[in-house]
Amino acid sequence: MNPLKAGDKAPLFSLPDQDGEQVNLTDFQGERVLIYFYPKAMTPGCTVQACGLRDNMAALNSAGVQVLGISTDKPEKLSRFAEKELLNFTLLSDEDHQVCEQFGIWGEKKFMGKTYDGIHRTSFLIAADGTVEKVFDDFKTSNHHDIILNYLQS
Fold first, then answer.
1. Which residue among 21, 26, 28, 87 is buried most deeply as judged by most CB within 10 Å?
2. DSSP letter for each residue of the chain
3. Residues noted as catalytic
4. Model confidence, pTM
5. What domains does the chain contain, in order, with CATH numbers?
């Protein structure tokens, strides 16, 4: 696993959102975008993380930041997740984990004695020029939004 670093060019991608519509990173050209990768919709940690972003969307937007959540879940599951939790940002489906691999956050994980490949929970703030401005990889699901807002306000 070799995650992108600040200063790297963000890979361009196109993925289906929770409604099955294609979303391209180029749709956000000239804007800052927080791309956050999470393992699985509707699990406790991912729900806490998503709701933290939802509840702080006004502050994120006023800092000029759009939010995209990416997991390997199917669009139908993302739609149920967004509806159930009243999420106010776009969720994208990377079923074949190609985008996860391009960002360098797909790799070996261990959970309850089992080893498997999966998403390492990481967020990337993409600058208006398409480069990685900041990588967030040291947070808890409950303080993810605080760490990002603290960075944006510093």
1. 87
2. -----TTSBPPP-EEEBTTS-EEEGGGGTTSEEEEEE-S-TTSHHHHHHHHHHHHTHHHHHHTTEEEEEEESS-HHHHHHHHHHTT--SEEEE-TT-HHHHHHT-EEEEEETTEEEEEE--EEEEEPTTSBEEEEE-S--TTTHHHHHHHHHH-
3. 46
4. 0.96
5. 8-148 (3.40.30.10)
